[in-house]
Amino acid sequence: MVSFIICCLKVVFKRKLVTQNDEVIMMGYVIQDYLISEKSHDVKPKNLMPLLIEKGFFNKDHREGLPLRNVLRELYDKNLLYLLPQVRFEQKSKNRFWYFNALQL
Fold first, then answer.
1. pTM for this model (two decimals)
2. What are phi and psi of 90, to 5 degrees?
3. pLDDT by residue for the chain (105 residues), tens digit each?
4. Do residues 100 and 81 lie in contact, with contact meaning Cβ atoms separated by under 8 Å?
5. Is the backbone of residue 89 left (phi > 0), alpha (psi -120 to 50) or beta?
6. Of the candidates 11, 34, 13, 35, the residue with the CA atom closest to the CA atom of residue 23
7. Across the chain, which distance is largest between two alpha carbons, in Å?
8. Which long-range contacts link 9-16 to residues 24+ away (Cβ below 8 Å)?
């Protein structure tokens, strides 16, 4: 089911009708599918980057997941983290440590 949704969203994305929020939601479906299939928890952004590059969300990875962490920071600053419900973070004095867990449906 998730693969079908992703396929449909990619068609819309290629037609440039997708907003930035829609792309983040599509990313959430891909991440959810990965977390369920791998039975993983507390996955770090650097571990998701190869998958997200393969699916076309990013061109390349540098500095171990920095592109994804930048997206997460932007979502946090705009109060839009709810678009990626799989993500949680631990706030430290200067930094945030990001983790992904599958949603229990």
1. 0.81
2. -110, 120
3. 556 555 555 554 454 455 788 999 999 999 999 999 999 999 999 999 999 999 999 999 989 999 999 999 999 999 999 999 999 999 999 999 999 999 987
4. no
5. beta
6. 13
7. 43
8. 10/56
